[in-house]
Design brief:
With about 200 residues, the protein is α+β, with helices and mostly antiparallel strands. The chain is built from 3 helices and 5 strands; from the N terminus they run αββαββαβ. The strands form 2 sheets. The protein has a 3-stranded mixed sheet with strand order 3-4-5, covered by helices on one side. β3 and β4 form a beta hairpin. It is globular.
Length: about 200
Amino acid sequence: MSRPRLGIMIAVLAVAVGTAVALWWIYPTGDEEPDAGVVEEQPPDPDEEVETEAMRPCDLYFPGLGGRLYVEQREIAAGAGAVELITHLVEALIAGPQGTSLRPPLPDGVTVGQVYLMEGGTVIVDLQSPEPAPPSSGSLREMLTVYSLVNSVLFNVDEAEQLVLLWNGQQPSTFSGHLNTAGPLVPNPRLVARR
């Protein structure tokens, strides 16, 4: 065999071996461990129980006819502790009642900011709004707005003793000029309609 032919055969053999190695590298045989960075999705196991968030019955107090607060019973997500439960309670109030004769205590656009539960049972709820101040209203409507929140939180959360309301991170001295909200508030059961 001549030298040029031997060289060509060696070159062809080298290309074939290189291609085989490259193909093996790109398409492994499947015996190898999967790449640690790749997460393979497994189909759900029908026998495995899906963990759902625990719900608990709560009484929400919504403003209604006759200048009273009316109880609407709801199943509220309990969360991992009192702060999460308080957050879910206030979110449910903001979302509004299911009953047609009742109304939400706060206007559209208000959301729950930070919620704190201090030692001694003082709850701080920061209401966030595009408006710089709480909505103006008469004295009765102001009381229903504030005590809808206060009663709903304090009557449902054992650890909560009093409630401080903030508006965009600041504690207003009043919501509409009639009720003093500069300090912690306690429930007002006299505003609740009797059944």
